[in-house]
Amino acid sequence: MVLQYRFVGLVALFAATLGSARADQLNLGAAAGYNVFSLNNLSMYSTTIQGKVAVGGAFAPSGGGLSLATGSHDGTGVYDLVVAGNFTMSAYSMAGGDIFVGGNMTWNNPSTSNNIYVAGNFTDTGGGNTGTVYYGGTYNGPGYLSHVSKSASSMPTPIDFLTAKTNLESLSTTLAGDAPNGTVSSSGSTWTLTGASSSLNVFNLSASSYSGATININAPAGSTVVVNIAGSADSFSGGSINLTGVSASNVIYNFNTATTLSLSSIAFYGTILAPLADFTGSGGQINGQLIAKSVAGTTSMSDTEFAGTLGAATATPEPSTWLLFLAGAGVFSFTYFSRRRVR
Fold it and tell me: What are the residues whose beta carbons fall under 8 Å from the beta carbon of 153, sequence distance 6 or more?
C-alpha cells in the first residue's frame, strides 16, 4: 500500500508541475501597437506613417518628407517614436505623442507638438517648434530656445529590442510550423486561398516572387489568417491582394526565412512579420503593421493593428519540471525494487 500511495503522489506531483509549465498566448509582444517595428535601422523617406514607430538601431531617413504618427491622438506621456540608437533627420514632422532617443539626436528645424527625451546629445541646427526637450549629454543649438532642459536622471530605452528580436523570431518560426488547414489553388498569376475555420486559417505559399500577381484570400469574418511565405529573397511587384470575409486586422503574412523583402506598387492588407528580413519598399502601401530587421524606402503605412488570435504556445515543461519528475521517478524505482527484495 505504501508503494501505491507513493506512485499516486508522484503522478499528482508531475501533473501539477506540468500544469504550471508555460502555455503563453502567441502574440506580437513588444511590437504590438506599432505601425512600424524595425529591429535595426530605419531609413524611410518621402512617405507617411500613420501610427507609432519603434527603431532598434539608427533612425536616419535617407531623404526628406517623412511624416510620422499622422493618425495618432496620443499626447504628452506616450511615446509614439522610440529610437534605441542615433536620430538624424531634416524635413520631418511628427503629429503624435512624445519621442525617445537612446543615442544622440540631430534634427534640423524640428517640428513636433510634444516632448523629446534624448539620452545623449541634442543638436538643433535650425530652430523649429517642439515641446520640452530633455537631454542627458550636451546641447548644441540656438540659445533662445527656452524649452530645452538638461535631464539629471538616466533615460532607459522603453523597449528591450534584444528580447523583442528573440521573441519575434520564435513567433515566426512557430507560425511557420503550423499545419496548413486551408486550400491554395493557382491559375496563371492568380492565387486563391480559401479557409473554412471560424478561428484560425493557415496557408502556405511556396513561391518567393509575385510579380503582377493577384492573391485572393477568402476566410470567415472574425477568423484569423496566417499566410506563411517561403523563400529567402521575397518580392511583390504590382498586382493586388484582396480579402473576402476576413479583415486586414486579422491577417498576418509570415516571412520566416526571408532575409530580404521588397514591395513595389502593391497594397498589402494585413500585418507583415519578417524579423530576419531587410525590407525595402518602393511606393505601394501596407494596411497593417510592418515588423522587420530593417526598414527602408517609400512605402506608406496605414495604421491597422493586428487583432487576430494566433493560439497558445505549446506547453513545454521547464527544465526544473523534468528534474523534479526524474527525481521522483528515482524514489519510485528505489521503493519498488526494495519491496521486491523483501518479498
Answer: none
Q: Consecutive sets of 10 residues in the chain, 343 residues long: mean pLDDT of each?
A: 44 42 73 97 94 96 81 82 92 80 88 87 79 88 68 84 98 97 95 97 94 96 98 96 98 98 96 98 96 97 96 54 46 43 43
Grid cell 542627458 in the structure block, residue: 136
- One-letter amino acid identity for 131? G
Instruction: Assess if residue 79 is contained within a domain.
Output: no
Look-up of cell digits 494566433: 310
* Number of independent structural domains in the chain: 1
Range of the domain at 319: 2-23+315-342
> What would the pLDDT profile of 17-55 be if each residue is shown by its tens digit?
444 333 468 999 999 999 999 999 999 999 999 999 999
Q: Is residue 226 part of a domain?
A: no
Whether residue 329 lies inside any domain: the answer is yes
- Find residue 98's DSSP bridge partners: 79
pTM recorded for the entire structure: 0.84
Q: Is 129 contained in some domain?
A: no
Q: CB burial class (10 A; 0-12, 13-18, 19+) of residue 339? A: exposed
Q: What is the pLDDT of residues 96-132, one digit of tens each?
A: 789 999 999 998 877 787 889 999 999 987 767 778 8
Residues 179, 180, 182, CA angle at the centre, nearest 5°? 155
Residue-level pLDDT at 315? 45
Neighbour order of strands in the sheet with 183-187: 183-187, 190-194, 214-219, 240-245
Q: How far apart are CA 193 and CA 204, in angstroms?
A: 9
